[in-house]
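To close the chapter, one final illustration. This time we ask the reader to focus less on the individual chains and more on the assembly as a whole: which components sit near each other, and how the overall shape emerges from the parts.
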Amino acid sequence: MTRSDLFSFTPGAVVVATGAAAAVGATSYPLGSLVRPGPGFFPLILAIALMVMGVGVLVETYVKTRATTTETPATDTRFAWGALGCTFVSLLVFALSVERIGFVPATMILIAICGLVERGRDWQKLVLVAICISVLGSVVFIWGLGLPISAFGGS
Amino acid sequence: MELLEGIQTGLLTALSWHALLYCFIGVSVGTFVGVLPGIGALAAISLALPLTYYLDPTDALIMLAGIFYGAQYGGSTASILLNLPGTATAAITCLDGYPLAQQGKAPLAIFVTAINSFVGSSIAILLVMGFAPVIAEFALEFGAEDYFAVILLGLVAASTLTIGSPFKALSMVALGLLLGMVGTDVNTGQFRFTFGFFELADGFSIVAVAMGLFGVSEIIANIGQSQSVIQKVGHIRFRDMLPTRAEWRQIIWPTLRGSGIGSFVGALPGTGPGIASLMAYATELRLSKTPERFGNGALEGISAPEAANNASVQSAFIPMLSLGIPGDAIVAVLMGAMILHGITPGPNLINQEPQMFWGLIMSFWVGNLMLLILNIPLIGMWVKLLSIPYHLLYPGILVFICIGVYSADNNVFDIFVVLGFGVLGYIMRRTGFPATPVLLGFILGPLLEENFRRAMLLSKGDATVFFTSPISAVFMVLSLIFISSVFVPGLRDRLARKRPEVVEDPE
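The assembled structure is written out below.
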């Protein structure tokens, strides 16, 4: 069994582990009785179901890798680390900054981070987008819906 | 005549100026997100959801539903012109729609899909009007165990009837149900799985989970892909759109069959427009005397699936309005919207809120007429939209996702929740775990647990009640058949092969 084969078992293993963790969590709440199921009862059933299904996924992967031992699994598209990282960082920064520096600056930062990652970036148009979004967002959400954040500066 | 009375009430509601306005906004936004590949109706609805807090619940629902069925109209445009499905459900339309466009028949294809969408929707709306009240009346007799069983059936059907691994889908249902447990237990006040976060006392916000799983993850997946820029669509003239007499004759039966299949599939809890259009296409392929034309621009190949996916979207409201059980993830979010507005969807809805029930249904007619206008004479406007490059679009969408989810509760915590579910959604997408069952489970989890506990209490702890109550027993047996079909692969294949034949009878 090669390394990539082992790697293909990760999803199923993660599901089983999640189920196990949830089961541990569920048993820390009162289980109650069948007549009056407590807050831990239903989650425990679900956690067990999750583990069983995770085992199902593992078995399925095993059957599949057995069937295609000679061929290496073709990965058609790469995992988009760049896109993932860019989205992660931009949302994180927005969440941390919006209440401190205001909606408009936070928007600018988010769009700038997205622009940094994009290869064929067009700063001029991106600035235009940023201005449109800032104005539209401020009008709809701050002025229209009265959210407790300011367009500029902390709230 | 209750029905006529209902229609009258509904028309009064749906034709008020504000209902018309919100219906128009809804269907326009729906067409917009349907046309643009990379933003789905689900993301759009979750985005609009916080905005509707300030509206009258009926108007809110009319608008959100408009986004839902409007997107089905728009979805075919990008499929035909770019070979890129605007919505996942429009993927089938690419098969014959794009070849038609290559033959210079794009205007004809667009016209045909719009007309088919309208016919499919109309037939399904008639069925909603006829069946939803009847089923609701029947469902008034339902006890807690029956509800438990029917919700379970919906969840099991949704995850076993999907394309791809049923184990993965079922495990995602379980995960979704567990996510639904997060927060304060209503019966005892116990905090569950909150990890010390006070923000989780009310559980995860529906908006944040839906936007993360469907909005953010879709954006991540789309950024990585090279964008096919629209070269030239050409001018779409109304003159080129009209089918000839022979072409009308060619599409009339496929359209009706597609509508029938779509209405039937959509009304089942747990099956969405994707399966409906796939089945309609397969049926036409099998019935056709010249199957070799399919894939090379057969008109039947776009009319049947388009009629089917629109019909299924409308008939998905049957279980939602009559039983309070959503057929797919989008309807589940709509249901979440109703609950947020303090209205419990279910058999009592039609009696307690007749104005909302009939107003919504009548607004479907209004909305579909608007869509017909938006998608035939005004199609050129939407086609221009396709020339906006994605890298200018998505930063704006991200900002609106953040601020939209923030506005739901004025809480930055929810942005982190979106972020978490976005990353999770992307990883799930890459590893073949479907996101729809997670959301269905998440929304139905609390309902399922509540009915389970109530059934247990009423039966004094006798777990066999689920099989001794006749209504519940039927649903439980159906669920068991679906589940066993997963473990017995041969049975699953046989069911899959049989299914198109079963629903072939035109309604």
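The longest strand of chain B covers residues 183-184. The beta strands of chain B are 183-184, 191-192. With these observations in hand, you are ready for the problems at the end of the chapter.
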